[in-house]
Amino acid sequence: MVWSLFPVDPHSGEEKYYIYRKGTYKVGRKGCDIVISKDKGVSRVHAEIIVDEMISMSRLPGGSNILSRVRIKDGSKYGTFINKNHASNEKVHELPSKETTLKDGDVVCFGTGNAAYRFSFVPFVFFSDNRGSYMIKILMNLCTHTIGACTTIELSDECTHVLTDQLAPVSEPLIDAIVAKKPIMLMSWLELLGEKCIGSEIPSWSSNVPTVAVEGVSVQLVDSITRSKCLVGYSFILDPRQMYLFEDRLPALLEVAGAKTASVEEFCSNSQVVDCGGRSRAVCVTTKASAHKFDDITELSSYSRVDEMDLLCAILSGHLDLSVLTQPTGQYTHFSCEWYSLVLNQWVLLKCTS
């Protein structure tokens, strides 16, 4: 984990700080690692925060009840105070050796008390589905020991970042990470993080956004906010007879891109489910192996088509190229939704008995 010092009053004008590795960090009014300018009672070199070890969150099962391996030592005129769990202030300058241990959640006040900071941990839990890579193992091991990060072999709610290689093929874990709106970045971001000691922000990963491979096509990923807007206003009609690459993940993937989804049966029973105010907004999702399966249903004969791979590229990149939307050929015999329902029921029955 990374340790942080955040001003209790976010409007105080004081900076927030992140501590990325073990060491001694000076706190004071000028020329220090942590600069406090709003309280005149803060000495030029007021205190020292000493990080003896960066502790991994996996080693803190009891949370704030476990020692953080971080000490604070006072060297000021007006003192340093620790408010632990809303109890009375502990006067660091009156303690033996003028130091004490900091724990997650402690509020630290320097000088007259106008400069109050909350000391807390910021968890870093890394997941990568390319963890078999030797370089990934090296970098993850480095970060675990340097900043106290954790690694996980499964994507979970606790996971904070997903790491991948440049031009890695799109995989199910990567799709799950996109659906979960996890930040996805290149391994090089880990190197950048490992070089930090202390700073006022977590390094941006905007320059470490990966490009992934979708059936030989290179697609640069975007952040979840950009992605959430790219398919707003569209509804996509899915056919359970189609063998989509990511199967049951496709509806969730479309939803995080701002789209609505419906099955052919839902559309047949209520076209407003997917109409969104205009027929041009409803699109049938096809596959290369069965591009014309929608053409035999009368109610869908006039709707645009899009191949699932083109749609996947649009979701990953945050941009739908309208040229990938195609019009139906009109050369196939059209049948009613009742006919489709009969065929679908037979298809489901065969699937269940096979």
Helix/strand class? alpha/beta
Cα-to-Cα separation, first versus last residue = 50 Å
User: Numbering strands along the chain, what is their spatial order in the largest sheet?
Assistant: 8-7-10-11-1-2-16
State which percent range the strand residues make up. Answer: 25-35%
Rounded to the nearest angstrom, the radius of gyration is: 28 Å
CATH architecture of the largest domain: 3-Layer(aba) Sandwich
**Number of helices in the DSSP assignment:** 9
Distinctive features:
single chain, 354 residues, alpha/beta, Tumour Suppressor Smad4, Rossmann fold, 3 domains, 5-stranded mixed beta sheet, nucleus, FHA_dom, DNA damage
Walk me through what this model shows:
- The chain is an alpha/beta fold and 354 residues long.
- The protein has three domains: 121 residues, Tumour Suppressor Smad4, CATH 2.60.200.20; 95 residues, Rossmann fold, CATH 3.40.50.10190; 128 residues, Rossmann fold.
- The chain has nine helices and 22 strands.
- The strands form five sheets. The chain has a seven-stranded antiparallel beta sheet, with no helix packed on it. Strands 4-3-5-6-9 form a five-stranded mixed beta sheet, with no helix packed on it. Strands 13-12-14-15 form a four-stranded parallel beta sheet.
- About 4% of the residues have low confidence.
- InterPro entries: FHA_dom, Nibrin-rel, SMAD_FHA_dom_sf.
- This is FHA domain-containing protein.
- It comes from Linum tenue.
- GO terms for molecular function: damaged DNA binding.
